[in-house]
Specification:
The protein is mainly α and about 120 residues long. It has four helices and no strands. Helix 1 runs antiparallel to helix 2, helix 1 runs antiparallel to helix 4 and helix 2 runs antiparallel to helix 3. The longest helix is centred in the C-terminal third of the chain and has 34 residues. It is elongated. The model has no long low-confidence stretch (mean pLDDT about 85).
Length: about 120
């Protein structure tokens, strides 16, 4: 899975930027960045394994992943923001930035998977 270094570099970049902007809120930034990172990494791994077996099944993995993310992220965010006393601004910016960045990277990975499959069939 050659995209793994891209995921790690993006996570490191997000953490460095967050720590530079909010040096006192390292826990919030870390939790905000690493949660979407972990979920995106798991989904990308499943997509990679599924695409090797059957490329058409990747759509099913994406749909199931989307539903599971919404089921997980809604209570996770609600509980974290409601029950944990911390700076919500740095957490929210870190979480949203990571969520958008990792989904963009995930889309680029899916595009590269399908491009590889098309090249093999030509």
């Amino acid at each position: 899975m050659k995209q793994l270094p891209n995921f790690i570099l993006l996570a490191a970049l997000i953490l460095i930027i967050g720590f530079t902007i909010y040096p006192d809120n390292k826990i919030e930034i870390t939790v905000g960045a690493l949660t979407p990172f972990t979920i995106a990494l798991i989904e990308t791994f499943l997509l990679f394994k599924t695409s090797q077996i059957n490329a058409l099944s990747t759509t099913r993995i994406l749909m199931i992943g989307f539903v599971l993310k919404m089921i997980f992220f809604a209570p996770f965010l609600l509980a974290l923001i409601h029950f944990y006393a911390f700076n919500t601004h740095s957490f929210v910016f870190s979480f949203l930035g990571s969520f958008i960045a990792f989904h963009t990277l995930e889309a680029m990975f899916i595009n590269s998977l399908f491009n590889q499959k098309q090249k093999k069939h030509k």
